[in-house]
Amino acid sequence: MSFLQPAPPPFDLDEYRTKPYLARLKANCQDWAVNGFGSPGVVYLLYAVKLAIYVVGGFAVISATTSGVGGLGDIGDWWTRPIVFQKFAVWTLVWEILGIGSGSMQLAARYGPIIGGVLYWLRPGTVRLPPWPDRAPFTRGTRRTPVDVALYAGVLAAGIYLLLSDGEAYGPLAHGRLQPGAIAVLLGVWALLGLRDKVSFLAGRPEIYGFLMVVSLFPARNLIVGWQFVFLFIWWGAASSKLNRHFPYVISVMVSNTPWNRSRKVKAQLYERYPDDLRPGRPAVLGAHLGTAVEFGLPLVLMVSRGGTITTLAVIGMIVFHAHITSTFALGVPLEWNLFMIFGLLFLFGHYGSVPFSHLDNPLLIVVLVLIGVVIPVLGNLFPEKISFLPGMRYYAGNWATSFWLFRKDSGAEERFDERSCEVARITVEQLAKLYGREMADYFSEKVLAFRGMHSHGRALHALVARAVDDPDAYYVRDGEVISGLVNGWNFGDGHFHNRQLIEVVQEQCGFDGGELRVIVLESQPAHIQRQRYRIYDAATGLIEEGWVDVAEMVRRGPWLEESFEFPVEVIRRGERQPGQAAVA
User: Fold this and answer.
1) The whole model's pTM is what?
2) At what angle do helices 220-241 and 82-97 cross, to 10 degrees?
3) Which residues, listed in sequence order, are joined to residue 477 by a DSSP beta bridge?
4) Nearest-5° angle of CA 8, CA 108, CA 151?
5) Residues 61 and 346 sit within 8 Å (Cβ to Cβ)
6) How far apart are CA 110 and CA 3, in angstroms?
7) Which secondary-structure segment (H or E) carries 533?
8) What digits encode the pLDDT tens for the residues 58-111?
9) CA-CA-CA-CA torsion for 203, 209, 214, 219, nearest 10 degrees?
10) Is the CB of residue 521 less than 8 Å from the CB of residue 538?
11) Quick one: which of 156, 148, 185, 182 has its CA closest to 94?
């Protein structure tokens, strides 16, 4: 990897292109294990600059718009005001829903333009995905109308108003907290937006910043402890979701791609036996267990210690935890969230860690905290097909809903998708070709499939390719996250953005014939069931096959399936066999 150019493949591309699907996957996975994605060094510099703008810009806005607050040079005198914490949460909400935060730039497969979000959601006629079109009145349809644009603009306007407002009294402070009425307006418009379009709604990260704003509606006495419990539930929700067989794969893949780990030897030790067995090795497994224990244990210490040296040590431990996650620059790049959590640690547990639990004496607030922080995540883990992994607080744990989109090469299906679908940008391979040339663009498009294959669920996705089509090499296989980023304007690990609902939208726009576009949809694993449901669709004719794959089989196999598509599944339903579908028993 150089500063301006991506790392070249460690093999001859002409020879590579002659190999079958699983052999190419094997070569890419072996390269990923010790080289990661191979992004140029300048990419990480750009992310670092963006984070600096996010932090400095946020506090500059807060200092300039809040009466009684000094300049950035005096931040030590005013950072502990509750209104500062609230405004930083609103600043991050606006930053995220603009599309500048998670899911932006090159590590989220955005090369030109480097964001979606605001470039897409302020345009009537673009795609929207209502969560309950058959249940919620006035939400049917998949095209963004002026009403949808107005709702999105309303969220931005309400957020900007809160950033510019002086707030109201909080104890002895004349401008100590944001006005609950203005917060209620933001939450109300945001909720209406969510009924019309789940993608832009979730882009603002309601499970974090929306949750904090809901707590901010309550009396001042309740705020600090209420916000502390929000943080506790975020940490414990994320930690609980990592109690699975998938998370060690996340650690090995993530650390393989970190910009600070340049040692191929160290990276190779993350795996069972590089280059032949790329299941997670002992360091990755221990790292996964340690991270989960930290995310359970240190927040508990923060809550029960209520100040003092022990609290300070726990704060330092959690800062290191979030700083480490930030430093890995994981694909999807949830970076700003980690920096916000670090500031929240210093504010809520560093400065206000000794506030007694007796301040949480509002029964309604307790109900709200339990509902959003406990009930919804529990239901999300038990019924992942019903609840997004974001409000379900199932974060970077490897247990995601995912999909593969297969475009038949000789029919020009991908070109038609690029021409006819309503996109925020050209297909990713075309974006890459402008930067690095066609040869490297094709190679890096398949490198994304290696990233998916290195995770446990990727084993099932790659195996199901042979159940979807007769000849995998006759199709361009694209990750559903990339498709969502193009058509929805945002992608961040939620497979519900690119499942059957999006397939129907794309089919309406492109009019594919049978066999031209096949989509494999793999749902997350429910916490109480050791298997995952899959569905295979033809865009033109509907469901082809539905069934289950066992998690045990996924973690037993290597990422390239030992170059064999034989993979046991339990078929529970079949549609009529269509042209181009593999006849697999």
Assistant:
1) 0.95
2) 50
3) 406
4) 160
5) no
6) 18
7) strand 531-538
8) 999 999 999 888 899 999 999 999 999 999 999 999 999 999 999 999 999 999
9) -160
10) no
11) 156
